[in-house]
């Protein structure tokens, strides 16, 4: 696994860690950021607190990250990587016979991340990733949508085009919102709301994916 996939998109890091000792420090900083976001929220997060929790000098934080936003971006990308690693392993172990089953599994894994990954429900991958890099701002939802389009083509033979991209992007954003609603209703995720999220997303995608 490359440093990019381990620690987040390359643009979120000022420099990539070369030695394992530096890589371990970056992992500790991201772990600390995740725990603190879970405990105090993003607004109260500070690079000083991250350095203290990770047991590193504040200079080490700025050696790899420009500010807390770039840390949050790297953490979001780390969770996206983990999400698709888990989803890919699920598909490899039990390949879905139809895209609907694949979408339902994708939502199930997303819910699992909500329940188990520190800070995930606070970030919910909606913050901009790589702001200012292009004319349009890319979000975690956009990254997930692009991966799903690739999966639809690879596993189910649905060729991607602009209309499919738009449809999948709306479906991802809708699914994210409905999962957030499920966890507002119940700290472990309201089961009926999660099932409704699966139904709504699948029904919407069915307009474009046969």
From TrEMBL:
Alphabetical list of SUPFAM superfamilies matching this protein: Homeodomain-like (SSF46689)
InterPro entries: DNA-bd_HTH_TetR-type_CS, Homeodomain-like_sf, HTH-type_TetR-like_transc_reg, HTH_TetR, TetR_C_22
Keywords recorded for this protein, A-Z: DNA-binding
GO MF terms held by the record: DNA-binding transcription factor activity; transcription cis-regulatory region binding
Keyword hit for DNA-binding: yes
PANTHER family: HTH-TYPE TRANSCRIPTIONAL REGULATOR PKSA (PTHR30055:SF226), HTH-TYPE TRANSCRIPTIONAL REGULATOR RUTR (PTHR30055)
Listed name of the protein: TetR/AcrR family transcriptional regulator
Species per Swiss-Prot/TrEMBL record: Glycomyces buryatensis
UniProt lineage: Bacteria, Bacillati, Actinomycetota, Actinomycetes, Glycomycetales
